[in-house]
Amino acid sequence: MGGRSAEREVSLVSGRECAAALREAGYEVVEVDAGPDLAARLSDLSPDVCFNALHGRWGEDGCVQGLLEWLGLAYTHSGVLASALAMDKTRAKAAFASAGLPVVESVIAPKSQVMARHVLNTPYVVKPNAEGSSVGVYIVSESANTPPRLGPEMPDEVMVEAYVPGRELTCTILGDRAFCVTEIVTAGWYDYHAKYAPGGSRHVCPADIPTEIAEACRDYALRAHRALGCRGLSRSDFRWDDARGIKGLFILETNTQPGMTPTSLAPEQAAAEGMSFAELCRWIVEDASCGR
Questions:
Q1: Distance CA 45, CA 41 (A)
Q2: Helix/strand/coil (H, E, C) string of 193-215?
Q3: Which of 4, 53, 153, 205 has its CA 20 to 30 Å from the CA of residue 274?
Q4: Do 96 and 221 fall within a single domain?
């Protein structure tokens, strides 16, 4: 848990909650704040399983997964390749498109070019190609006369994506099982503040949407999970323009390390399916592996 990404604080919360749930489930748990000595710490501890509660770069992009493979330690969630693919939004979109899933038009462009001119027709969204938790997301409105002024947190190359109006939906996969769909209701964009600040968003679980859309989300989430080669737990996010029906539903990305507190989206969906937080954590631990 922890680590050094932009999502460190969120990861610390996930780690503490998962550790408490696993102790409740009867496991012996040691909490490790991932730092430069992580390999040495894990070698000394020689755990049966590493529960990966890291978020963001280094923790969910294949880096720590490669370290755990090198050490020969069983670990939770997706492996090296699936983690790297999912974290790279462009490559994940390519995998989704190959699987026949509907994706949003996007381009990768230099930060300087994006600040100099509109590289897509407005409205559009600018975001890092490889970050999570809506870190560094800019929305350029249809009426914007000038391109966005991107902050220093943005990398030298960014993704520019067509804006899809409508509703924010998400669906969790556990193994081969698709949970119910949640609608995320916010006053504006579902950004970092909306995700983690008290009162920043409201979850409607299960979502009050047509059966056709709910079933499509479940189907797309499972196909995305498989297209990337994920294992264990993943969560896919969607935008749905309800004025267009099924043609207005698009998959945005798949998160291989979704937030893991009892009120996070994936545990909420598990609870709606009759699985407690401790039972969810137990399932994830028992599914851990190395070398696959």
A1: 6
A2: HHHHCCCCCEEECCCCCCHHHHH
A3: 53
A4: yes
Catalytic residue, candidates 138, 192, 196, 220: 196
Residues 178 and 190 in one domain: yes
| β-sheet with 177-185: strand ranges across | 202-204, 177-185, 167-174, 233-240, 249-255
Catalytic pick from 237, 264, 268, 282? 237
Q: What pLDDT band is residue 153 in, cutting at 50, 70 and 90?
A: confident
- CA-closest candidate to residue 242, choices 218, 264, 216: 216
Predicted confidence (pLDDT) per residue in 89-147, tens digit: 999 999 999 999 999 999 999 999 999 999 999 999 999 998 754 567 899 999 999 99
Q: Is 7 a catalytic residue?
A: yes
Same domain? 13 vs 94: no
Q: How many residues does the chain have?
A: 292
